[in-house]
Design a protein that fits this description.
Layout (H helix, E strand, L loop, with lengths): L1 H10 L15 H25 L5 E8 L2 E8 L6 H12 L6 E6 L5 E3 L3 H9 L4 E8 L4 H5 L4 H6 L1 H10 L20 E4 L10 E4 L10 E12 L2 E13 L4 H5 L7 E2 L1 E2 L2 E2 L5 H6 L1
Parallel strand pairs: 1-5
Antiparallel strand pairs: 1-2, 3-4, 3-5, 6-7, 8-9, 9-10, 11-12
Length: about 280
């Protein structure tokens, strides 16, 4: 019995030895790895903090009729008056309504915002709030009689009261002051880089009016410099400017100026009547 058991035990395979347990990493390696992780986290935190730098804001309070809006705009984004007008236009839904844009300065005067220069002044006057007034075009009294008169009106309240009591009226401004964007172009010097330096191509704009251009022409003799020398040719010249006319008011034409072309058509070889009809 015992011998049989010993034989059977000798025939059975013995199990392989178990591998030794892995040794833990040295503390120095763990410490180095933790330092690397911390350094990465610190770099990311610095990047996030640098991207979260707060830009200075400008507080704005705008009014159109009985509608008020309050909002803030980053000062760095206020680059032009056109972008600012589009922003205000979207906030008040004025895409189809022509309007004027004004602001109240620290002295209480109502001043326009219609170009980049006074737009920058308006932003600088925001202490702490930029107060805007939007009005439909044609409804603003300042647009008709001039801006910056609020302070003068406040100072003359007693004078107006006394003038009303005595029956004498204060002098009023009877002329209109239009916004710069309402001006119409009446003249321009064009094709400067095309025509010779001794010539000038001028555009006079009549805007559909039946009024003449405001000058008279005459025929004369023009002296041209050619390869064969001086050459005398017939020419058309300005003889007189109409006082207060379009040509005189622009200052681009003068008496004795030679007319070389009209509406792109050369006048060389044409009679005085033909040029007049042109």
């Amino acid at each position: 019995m015992i011998s049989d058991m010993s034989q059977s035990s000798s025939l059975s395979p013995q199990p392989p030895p178990l591998p030794p347990p892995p040794s833990p990493p040295p503390p120095q390696a763990v410490y180095a790895a933790s330092n690397i992780d911390n350094s990465v986290i610190n770099v990311n935190m610095v990047k996030n903090l640098s991207s979260m730098v707060v830009c200075p804001l400008v507080e704005v309070k705008s009014k159109f009729d009985a509608e008020f809006r309050r909002f803030s705009v980053a000062r760095v984004s206020l680059t032009s008056v056109e972008l600012f007008r589009k922003l205000v236009e979207q906030l008040h839904h004025l895409s189809e309504i022509p309007f004027t844009l004004c602001y109240t300065d620290p002295h209480g005067d109502l001043l326009p915002i219609n170009n980049d220069e006074n737009f920058r002044k308006a932003i600088d006057s925001a202490r702490p709030i930029l107060r805007l007034l939007l009005q439909r075009k044609g409804e603003s009294l300042e647009e008709r009689y001039g801006y910056g008169l609020d302070a003068i009106k406040k100072k003359n309240r007693i004078s107006r009261f006394l003038a009303g009591a005595t029956g004498t009226a204060l002098p009023s401004r009877a002329y209109d002051i239009s916004m710069p964007q309402d001006f119409r172009q009446v003249s321009a010097i064009i094709d400067v880089d095309v025509v010779p330096e001794c010539h000038r191509r001028v555009r006079l704009c009549k805007h559909g009016s039946d009024k003449p251009l405001g000058f008279y022409i005459r025929d004369g003799t023009s002296v041209r410099v050619t390869q064969q020398g001086l050459l005398k040719l017939p020419g058309i010249f300005i003889s007189r400017l109409v006082p207060g006319g379009l040509a005189e008011s622009t200052g681009l034409l003068a008496v004795n100026d030679e007319v070389l072309e009209v509406n792109g058509i050369e006048v060389a070889g044409k009679s005085l009547d033909q040029v007049t009809d042109m």
